[in-house]
Amino acid sequence: MNIPQDLKYTKTHEWIKVDGNKAKIGITDFAQHEITDIVHMELPEIGKQVKKGQPAAVVESVKSAFDIYAPLTGKVIEINDSVLETPEIVNQSPYEKGYLFVIEFADEKELDDLLKADDYKNLI
Predict the structure, then answer these.
(1) How many structural domains are present in the chain?
(2) For residues 61, 47, 93 and 33, what is the CA-based torsion angle, rounded to 10 degrees?
(3) Is residue 2 part of a domain?
(4) Strand partners, 40
(5) Is residue 51 part of a domain?
(6) 86-98 pLDDT per residue, tens
């Protein structure tokens, strides 16, 4: 199971790469294995306000549909169009090409609630 050390994680299996006040978000390698073959994605619109812990996107697989939760409160400033066109890219490259969206967040204190790689590894 691939768990990059430079990312933060949630208990609901999202990963977060923080760069200043921006956060790139996707689902973990563990999550994509559990979901199996991803066939469709629904991403938030650019400009949408997302709230920490609330559904922000949907991943559909051959098994079911799964909510993806916003790990931080903020405004969506970018979505990854390639996962809309080729959703299986999330299965192939969950941490690189398969990221879902980027938000601009304001409250750095919310970062304190995220898990470090070792903590996430213990969770799964």
Answers:
(1) 1
(2) -30
(3) no
(4) 60
(5) yes
(6) 999 999 999 999 9
Q: How many CB atoms lie within 10 A of CB 23?
A: 25
Asked if residue 77 lies in contact with residue 60, where contact means CB atoms within 8 angstroms, the answer is no
Q: For residue 92, give Cα distances in angstroms to 36, 49, 109.
A: 11, 29, 32
Q: How far apart are CA 10 and CA 80, in angstroms?
A: 20
Identify the residue whose tokens are 């939760």: 69
Is the pTM higher than 0.90? The answer reads yes
Do residues 55 and 46 touch, judged by C-beta distance below 8 A?
no
DSSP 43: -
Instruction: Kindly state the average pLDDT of the residues 27-52.
Output: 95
For 21, the token pair is 């006040």
Nearest Cα neighbor of 96 from 7, 22, 33, 35 is 7
